[in-house]
Amino acid sequence: MDGRRCATREGAQYEARRHDAAVENPLMLEPETVGGLVTVWTAIADLHVQGIAPEQ
User: Which residues span the domain enclosing 27?
Assistant: First the structure.
């Protein structure tokens, strides 16, 4: 857990399940992180199409 206290038993159970899933799959990402990565990848692809980004 991240140190915050859960107000309800359901909330505590949800946080425990999230923690267990993250331990099993360390690459589990929050939706905000995935959205941010998609934005970055899209921007890089746009630059590459325009010929601005160097070849990797």
Answer: 9-49
Nearest CA to 29 out of 44, 18, 39 is that of 18
Judge whether 55 lies within some domain: no
Spatial contact of 12 and 6, defined as CB atoms under 8 Å apart = yes
pTM of model > 0.70: no
What is the pLDDT, as a whole number, of residue 8?
A: 82
In the predicted model, residues of the chain with pLDDT beneath 70 are 1-6, 22, 25-31, 53-56
- Residue 34, token pair as written in the block: 């995935």
Q: Report the domain count for the chain.
A: 1
Closest CA to 15 of 34, 36, 23: 23
Instruction: Provide the greatest CA pair distance for the chain.
Output: 54
